[in-house]
Amino acid sequence: MRTALENSSDKLRFVGRGSDWRRLLSPTGNAGDAVFRGLMLSAALLVVAIGASMIFALTSDSMLSIRHFGFAFLTSREWNPIKGEFGALPFIYGTVVSSLIALLISVPLSLGIAIFLVEQAPYYVARPIGFLVELLAAIPSVVYGLWGIFVLAPFLRVYVEPRLARWLGWTPFFRGSFTGIGLLTGGIILAIMVTPIISAVVRDVLAAVPSSQREAALALGATKWETTRVVLVNGAPGIAGAVILGLGRALGETMAVTMVIGNRPQISASLFEPSYTIASAIANEFTEATQDLYLSALVELGLILFLVTFVVNGIARVLVWNVTRKTGGVARAA
Amino acid sequence: MTNFGKSDQIRRTTSAVMTSLTALCTFVAVGILVIILSYIARQGIASLSFRFLVDSPRPVGEGGGIGNAILGSVVLLTLSSAFGLPVGIAVGVYLSELGKGHFAAVVRFIADTLTGIPSIVTGVFVYTILVLPMKHFSALAGGVALALIMVPIVARTTEEMLKLVPHSLREGALALGAPQWRVTLGVIIPAGASGIATGAMLAIARVSGETAPLLFTAFGSRFFNYYLDQPIASLTVQIYYYALSPYDEWHAQAWAATLVLMTLILGINIVVRFLTRKRF
After folding, report:
1. DSSP B59
2. Which numeric CATH code is attached to A70-327?
3. Does residue A57 contact residue B128 with C-beta atoms inside 8 Å?
4. Which of A56, B68, B167, B184 could make an S-S bridge to B56, C-beta 3.0–4.6 Å?
5. B52-275 — its CATH code?
């Protein structure tokens, strides 16, 4: 008497014989499964290939510039396409400073929004308001730029910059003429753009903190705010991840910044002065680059941006995953 | 209420102050949204007309419109959806239904980090692999650049949506003797179809606002273009050039074009929100 198990394993062996390609692609050995799995797998491989070929194409096209300038590319302050001198330091400075201004403004704002929506507001308030905050992320970069040029820049020029100069003019950061176009405006536009991203991830992180933590704090007599602090401590790594994710977005943001930052490759302590970021340099000069070395230098800027954002995003994902995965939450970050 | 002393009052006051501060933060963010949207609506309606929507650009002082840019955006979105959606959905199906272990984790990680790569870098990449070999800007290159942005977004949302499909459905179909491909195509994907569709729509909304990757792929054009190997206009690039121009008339046209673009994007977002209101 043969058992059902032996029968089925016989059948499996029969299907497997002479059909190795099916077995190779699918454990069931079914031809349809093999084709299906093959197709889906090749799509997944394509994603890996896109990532790999991005690194390869950007590296090989910037080889000319890398060989020519070496490490000095990152430390030279001279960007003069006519003389054939390319140094990325002014762009790196502009990118880092505008992103830091953005984080300085948007981190407290995003934390406040997330805390309000998760810890304080009732469900029927949190849902529509949360949707409105997320809509800020749906506005295209070029629209923020348009608004920045015609609304934010004049506003800053007339109302904000003169006051900053009067109160904080003794620091080196708020000096010079009031144009409304410069690092400060770029930073503020970036802050508005990354706020919905950071607050969305922080919301997920806070929602993933077990409610037993809140109940325990409340049971010990903690006030609302003290309970929130307990929750914040629990979600700290995820919040750090959210901030880094926002940083990654700010570093690579192109259009809005290009339109309001002034696009002048200089390093100046004053936030009123025009500046230039890596992304806006590529956007402005790519189609003008006629010599090979110029083009190669711009591609190298792209490579730098790619590598920095890749690392920054990688760190952020790991931090956010570790917090939200435990409770099965899903990071909605786009 | 019993008075527990001074320190207790400080604690209560701190709590009240901080609570109102978080509400203030939210109010500021929503306020900015309202200010931006209302400004776009006010400025945009002023110079919106039927002629503006169908005409192509003209020299300053002669009016002109954004008809070619609207058509160009439609062509670019169609191209990018044709390339990006099938691949993205397939990757999502792979991650949710088939991929296990390290390789799937690697694909997921790469997809997630690709989502964070600045879109201008995608533009540079497509320039080096398509525009340089073809020797000129083209609608095709623009479509590919947008598709590259769509793939990781669609892949991850598809994966998340398919993971919401109950396991009992898979087990039931498999127990009836269906092979895995029939289970996936006939049961799992239909069950998650609305979720996949909303993910796809959000990806389309996202890329329809992209400008940076189009600057040196699709490039832009002042004429109606029907050929995929030629430069093509798009709403976003048109807004960019009009915004930076020194002419008031073009500034007004930039606002009107923005109103058209925002209507499309907000429309998609609100429809998606309406469709998914039960799930989240």
Report:
1. -
2. 1.10.3720.10
3. yes
4. B68
5. 1.10.3720.10
